[in-house]
Amino acid sequence: MSLNYIKNFYEGCMKPPTVIGQFHTLFFGSVRMFFLGVLGFAVYGNEALHFSCDPDRREINLFCYNQFRPITPQVSFSVFWALQLVIVLVPGAIFHLYAACKSINQECILQKPIYTVIYILSVLLRISLEVVAFWLQIHLFGFQVKPLYLCDAVSLGKKFTIIKCMVPEHFEKTIFLIAMYTFTVITIVLCVAEIFEIVFRRLCLLMMQ
Asked: What family name appears in the similarity comment (predicted)?
């Protein structure tokens, strides 16, 4: 019996009851995760090593880099976006776990009103989480990484006030941020479209009855 639960849960997660939901799973599971896992670490991975200031001294570079990135890019980048991906998947996973425990087929989800409403609520929750993540991303990372960072180095001594530092691969980082914003917007649009598909199919079922 437990194996059937696992099988139903897996099929529900991989094959949602809507066409748009299936496309969202493919887009979310392949393109978005690949972009985050491969290209993200390639852009942010060695940022601290290539961050340089004028004068180019190790202690000054380290001080200004810690000011530029209060949270290390490996932590802020990987934890934030990985956590976003996991949290956004939670509402759908909970629903499909419920459906698996109740032995609900994917075809029945759009046929019975109670299951349809619960599924729509899970999609709405997914949209809400994406919107919150979108706002947090703007607050934490902004839209653009500037090539020059002005470091406030007064605490280092009287001879230092404002130090100019070069941010490595600033253009690539900007492109990456825009891509992550775009993925979030696409996901939200797909979720909204999935709700319209559910409503349309429910109306078709009612008219056929």
From this structure: Belongs to the connexin family. Beta-type (group I) subfamily.
The dihedral sign for the CA sequence 5, 7, 12, 13: positive
Helices (H) and strands (E) in the chain, counts: 10, 3
Sequence-distant (≥ 6) Cβ neighbours of residue 196 within 8 angstroms? none
Read off the pTM.
0.77
Q: Tell me the three state secondary structure of residue 143.
A: coil
* Dist CA 133 CA 39 (whole Å): 20
Cα 147 from Cα 185, distance rounded (Å): 26
Cα dihedral sign for 41, 14, 22, 189? negative
Phi and psi, residue 162, nearest 5°: -115, 125
Whether residue 73 has a cis bond before it, omega within 30° of 0: no
Dmax (CA) for the chain in angstroms is 83
- Rounded Cα distance, 173 and 185, in Å: 18
Per-residue pLDDT, 57: 83
Q: 161: domain range?
A: 3-208
Q: What is the CATH number of the domain that holds 198?
A: 1.20.1440.80
Number of structural domains (the chain) is: 1
